[in-house]
Amino acid sequence: MIKADVLDKLIEFRHQRDWEQFHNPKDLAISLSIEASELLEWFQWKTDEEVQVRLRSDKRVELEDEIADVAAYLSYLCHDIGVDINKVLAAKIDKNALKYPVEKVKGRSDKYNEYS
């Protein structure tokens, strides 16, 4: 997901500022949630049409900044607790494939315990 050189740069950025002391797993998870909420604010109260207009406007950079913040905190958390994001994401896809077999859910938005 995050290229190794970008992750190294992110970790070095944090190290140079001595921020590791604040980045325990709990606080990183909290910060990740806060940044995800800020990402949601970019879409709040907007119609689909308004979102499309904003995506083509100067406001897009604000969205990209929020996405970067989410990615940074998720990267710090994974790095610090030794989670290989690509490995766990691939495993989750396999689990979801069992929960949501194509023949039962294609074109449906039901939760796995709601379809028959």
CATH class identity: Mainly Alpha
CATH 4th-level superfamily: MazG-like
Tell me the series of helices and strands, N- to C-terminal: HHHHHH
**CATH topology tier name:** Helix Hairpins
Largest sheet: none
What is the mean predicted local confidence, pLDDT? Answer: 96
- Give Rg in angstroms: 18 Å
Morphology call? globular
Q: Could you say which structural class the secondary elements and strand pairing correspond to?
A: mainly alpha
Unreliable parts: none
Whole-number count of domains: 1
CATH architecture: Orthogonal Bundle
Q: What's the total helix number?
A: 6
Describe, in short, the structure shown.
The chain has 6 helices and no strands.
Could you describe the 3D structure shown?
This protein is mainly α. 70% of the residues lie in helices and 0% in strands. The chain has one domain (4-105): MazG-like (Helix Hairpins), CATH 1.10.287.1080. It starts with a helix and ends in an 11-residue tail after the last helix.
Structural topology:
Blueprint: H1 4-16, H2 25-43, H3 48-55, H4 60-81, H5 85-99, H6 102-105
Helix pairs in contact: 2-4
Label this structure with key terms.
single chain, mainly alpha, Helix Hairpins, globular
